Amino acid sequence: MTNALIEKLSRRDQLSPVEIAALKDVLDPPRAIAANVDIMREHAHASHSLLIVSGLTARYSTLSDGRRQITEINVTGDFVDLHSLLMKQMDHGVMTLTPCEISSAPHSRLRDLTEKHPHLARMLWLETVVDAAIHRQWLVAMGRRSGLGHLAHLLCELYVRLKAVGQTEGAGFDLPLTQSMLGDALGLSTVHVNRLIAELRREGLVRWNQSRVEIINWPRLAAIAEFDPTYLRLQNEPV
Amino acid sequence: MTNALIEKLSRRDQLSPVEIAALKDVLDPPRAIAANVDIMREHAHASHSLLIVSGLTARYSTLSDGRRQITEINVTGDFVDLHSLLMKQMDHGVMTLTPCEISSAPHSRLRDLTEKHPHLARMLWLETVVDAAIHRQWLVAMGRRSGLGHLAHLLCELYVRLKAVGQTEGAGFDLPLTQSMLGDALGLSTVHVNRLIAELRREGLVRWNQSRVEIINWPRLAAIAEFDPTYLRLQNEPV
DNA sequence: CGGGAGGTTGAGAGGCCTCAACTCTTGTGG
DNA sequence: CCACAAGAGTTGAGGCCTCTCAACCTCCCG
Q1: How many angstroms away from the CA of A124 is the closest CA of chain B?
Q2: SS3 B2
């Protein structure tokens, strides 16, 4: 049930059987949760962290006029809101984008884990550090890339992250997000997202029907995005 | 020499004398570094992390056409690039914005610290988690706020962060950044930054001469920015 | 005194926004 | 089995925010 997380962590550094057992011990059995449900409310004081066993979630912040900004999309195997172990109060909300299975990890047990397993603690620390690196890439894309480059970058990122946990098929993957949600992630309007997707299709870079995205021309898509996956930290370097 | 860092950490949770000594032990004596110097290059493999003893630095990423996006401004007492302890390869560069004093902490010693002092390790983990929270606020500002709101938010953030380490005087602080640098931080052009600053002045929200920023009307500035300092995690809650 | 960096201002262009209408799909109930 | 509603996607038109280009000013320093 924690396979995707362990698969991802093992790409970065070796986990001992004891550590794997300790990691499994902090997690409650997964619960099934429907799509479009808040699993952690903005400003809440959290007492546990959540692991996505399957499905897609989004971190978001809401503005006073109701508009929304999604700040990260999380996928199967992501320890979303692990940061609340230390932040205590949530600076953003987390919602499901698809039906999900979610495991809960009480902060008390996570704190015990950091006392007894310093190496595993660093591996979890690294999870949050990669989140920050993803945020930085989004900042670069939002601040300095064209709308098309930004969308292309998001697709490249999701493809690589989903592939790392076995959620791709060939050059395609499922992305059951509405164009309105994509707009909230990119900081663009729904109408403009629609036109950008049309442009990617017209240029023969992707096939995109329903929730199925197929990347037809990876080299050109990655070039438009100036995509370099180093920040996802999927290479093996012991911590 | 690590006073600002310890002052900031102590706002969040109590540090024992042993922990303070351990923290000081990982740091080399500070070096003086001029303004506009790269202290960590993009894509470099880091073997140590850097503490800002005094001065201002910026994390940045460079695009293929030479344009730049600053993803965070770091101030006195910030453990900039602590994340490299776990990331190993830098996903961004770090440069000084002003003359700085910088202390270096070898990763080997930091790793030892996490083995022997789990609580202190969590405090350092929290430092990187706050970085991520700052990134998220920048994403919200960049994606969904007006240019004016974005600039106002940056000023509010810097004021609160500088105040937490005793670097403000009344409602003012030093911000020796060129408008071009501010543009790189906000994702705007230099010309537009100039016009936004002029608007803040015209509206009587700030006085801004040379590198001196004086906030005249904090309530209105914070309202324009929709600023809520919770994400900076300066409240006391034990980790 | 000249040069360079930074700041300021004007003018025109363009990317993205808003508003609005229309289409398509899906699910529900009569 | 069809009518209808609701949600999502698509397209057009006009407008605004921000960009680029360019000129000029100020200040500082060699």
Answers
A1: 10
A2: coil
DSSP states along A90-131 = -SSEEEESS-EEEEEEEHHHHHHHHHH-HHHHHHHHHHHHHH
Per-residue model confidence as pLDDT tens digits over B100-142 = 999 999 999 999 999 999 999 999 999 999 999 999 999 999 9
- Strand D contacts (Cβ < 7 A) comprise A 178-180, 190-191, 194-195, 197-198; B 146-148, 183, 187-189, 191-192
Give percent helix, percent strand, percent coil of chain A, each to the nearest 5. Answer: 45, 20, 30
Nearest CA in chain A to B72: A136
Check CB contact under 8 Å for B128 and A133: no
Min distance A39 CA to chain B CA atoms (Å): 18
| H helix and E strand count, chain B | 9, 10
Confidence of residue A219 (pLDDT cuts 50, 70, 90): very high
Task: Report how far residue A239's alpha carbon sits from residue B115's, in angstroms, rounded to the nearest whole number.
Answer: 12
Cα B81–chain centre separation: 11
Closest chain B residue to A128 measured between Cα atoms? B129
- Please report, rounded to whole angstroms, the spatial distance between the CA atom of protein residue A180 and the C1' atom of nucleotide D12: 19
Residues in chain A: 239
What pLDDT, in 10s, does the model give residues B86-102? Answer: 999 999 999 999 999 99
What residues in A contact B114, CB-CB < 8 Å?
A: 118, 121-122
For the segment A58-71, what is each residue's pLDDT rounded down to a tens digit? Answer: 999 999 999 999 99
Task: Tell me the nearest-neighbour CA distance from A210 into chain B, angstroms.
Answer: 26
- Name every chain A residue with its beta carbon within 8 A of the beta carbon of B138: 139
> Which residues does A119 contact at the CB level (< 8 Å), separation at least 6?
A19, A239
Residue A26: both structure tokens together: 């902090």
A69: nearest Cα among A180, A220, A178? A180
- Angle, helix A218-225 to helix A147-164, in steps of 10 degrees: 120
Average pLDDT over residues A88-104: 96
Helical axes B190-202 vs B179-186, angle rounded to 10°: 100
CA dihedral B156, B68, B87, A43 (to 10 degrees): 30
Contact across the interface for B133 and A230, Cβ inside 8 Å:
no
Q: Is A168 left (phi over 0), alpha (psi -120 to 50) or beta?
A: beta
Closest CA to B224 of B139, B144, B126, B152: B152
From residue B175, how far is each of A193, B154, B168, B189 by CA, in Å?
37, 11, 10, 18
Place of tokens 């993957």: A173
